[in-house]
Design goal:
The protein is of the alpha/beta class and 260 residues long. It has a single domain, classed as Glutaconate Coenzyme A-transferase, CATH 3.40.1080.10. 25% of the residues lie in helices and 20% in strands. It contains eight helices and 14 strands. Strands 4-3-2-1-5-10-11-12-13-14 form a ten-stranded mixed sheet, sandwiched between helices. Strand 8 and strand 9 form a beta hairpin. It is globular. The two termini are 27 Å apart.
């Protein structure tokens, strides 16, 4: 399903694949959780959650804003609305040294340019030559530390064979390595990626760390998800179908975007 298609629920609510993905990601965030938020799709989903079912969700941004409550989507981690609406503003070293690295943050919410079967994330370069890549991406920021130390990591990313690859060109943020306990051997505090939400469906890692398709979004087939994946994607015995967006979720999401 492409972003231009508009599936219809019994209540005649129409939505795009991007909206379904964002709403599914927002639903995964529970009330009262402390969430380290990346800009872009993760920030959109986190702010949607706070404005719908999880008003006490604590949003933490890398710039040092704790408990931000923006009334629009921030353009960057330096957007003034984050500081203006925060419970507290602290230094960047304090965010990482006191909040993140000791394990005080429940969920890290990240995006990706490339993702592999073990949830390793690339946001650095596309191409084999680091010095002369095909594409130089924005880079790591705080994502490696988020992936290492948050209680768990959620990833939200549009799915295609360009983004879901057999092996990432560069490991910016460590997921499950090559599986089979690589995180534990490295002494990483957090559980790593426990949920991947795309515009086609939802994946979770199995006991080895390999991602498994556990749900498809309405109107999407398992074959479509596999066709958009750069490896032989494993599928749960009976994958679920995501609940379509409600009118309230869509209206709230659209209002957030309109205000930005």
């Amino acid at each position: 399903m492409t972003d231009t298609e508009t599936p219809t629920t019994p209540m005649e609510v129409t939505y795009t694949a991007d909206e379904m993905m964002t709403i599914a990601a927002a639903r995964a965030l529970g009330e009262g959780k402390r969430c380290f938020v990346g800009i872009g799709l993760p920030s959109t989903a986190a702010n949607l959650a706070r404005n719908t079912h999880a008003p006490d969700l604590v949003l933490i941004y890398e710039s040092g804003t704790l408990g931000s409550k923006p009334d629009r989507l921030p353009a960057s981690i330096g957007d003034g609305v984050l500081a203006e609406t925060a419970d507290a503003v602290i230094s960047v070293p304090e965010v990482f040294n006191y909040w993140l690295q000791p394990g005080r943050i429940d969920i890290g919410f990240l995006g990706a340019a490339q993702l592999d079967r073990y949830g390793n994330i690339n946001t650095t370069v596309i191409g084999d030559d680091y010095a002369d890549p095909k594409v130089r991406l924005p880079g790591a920021g705080g994502a490696p530390e988020i992936a290492a130390s948050c209680g768990e990591v959620f990833v939200v990313v549009r799915q295609s064979r360009r983004s879901f690859v057999e092996q990432v060109d560069f490991i910016t943020s460590f997921g499950h390595g090559c599986g089979n306990g690589d995180r534990a051997r490295l002494g990483l505090r957090g559980a790593g990626p426990t949920l991947v939400i795309t515009d086609l469906g939802v994946m979770r890692p199995d006991d080895t760390g390999e991602l498994v398709l556990v749900a498809v979004h309405p109107g999407v087939t398992v074959e479509q998800v596999r066709d958009a994946t750069g490896w032989r994607l494993r599928v749960a015995p009976e994958p679920a179908v995501s609940t379509p967006p409600s009118a309230t979720e869509l209206a709230t999401l659209q209002a957030l975007r309109a205000a930005s």
